[in-house]
Amino acid sequence: MRSMFVALVLSLGLPHLAAAGEADVIEVAATRMGETWRFDVTVRHADTGWDHYADAWEIVAPDGTVLGTRTLFHPHVAEQPFTRSLSGVSIPDGVTEVTIRAHDSVDGYGGAEKTVTLER
After folding, report:
1. Could you list the pLDDT tens digit for every one of the 120 residues in the chain?
2. pTM of this structure
3. Burial (0-12, 13-18, 19+ Cβ within 10 Å), 71
4. Taking a C-beta distance cutoff of 8 angstroms, is the pair 85, 68 a contact?
5. Counting beta carbons within 10 angstroms of the beta carbon of residue 104, is it exposed (0 to 12), middle (13 to 18) or buried (19 or more)?
6. Complete domains list, the chain, with CATH
7. Cross-strand bridge partners of residue 86
């Protein structure tokens, strides 16, 4: 029965939904701006259009707390990789590094992440 389902999915042309893979963070710049931080994050993802695209990235503390989220409101099919910024991010005292992870509309999280040390 399972093989019939797989055959049906393949015959319908649905494999393209996974063809874009996961969203990868390939570069991060963190800049202190007074009491908050600005993050410039470069993401690579083989966006195929509205059906599968990188739709966000997050700044995550070592304990798993999400400190900031940059929502990406549209696909970047013709702009790869691309860089977007998020300012006004509060980083708690004692946090010396954060991890940036990207999300896509089909696979969720799971691509390459970057951990950066914050120069205070």
Report:
1. 444 333 333 334 443 334 567 999 999 999 999 999 999 999 999 888 899 988 899 999 999 999 999 999 888 878 789 899 999 999 999 999 999 999 999 999 989 999 999 987
2. 0.81
3. exposed
4. no
5. buried
6. 2-117 (2.60.40.10)
7. 39
Residue tagged 């990188």 (tokens): 54
Query: Of all residues in the chain, what percent are helix, strand and coil, respectively (each to 5)?
Result: 10, 45, 40
Closest C-alpha to 32, from 101, 111, 119, 106: 119
Distance of CA 113 to the CA centre of its chain: 8
The string of DSSP codes covering 56-109 is EEEEE-TTS-EEEEEE--S--TTS-SEEEEEEEE---TT--EEEEEEEETTTBS
**Cross-sheet strand order for the sheet of 82-89:** 24-33, 36-44, 82-89
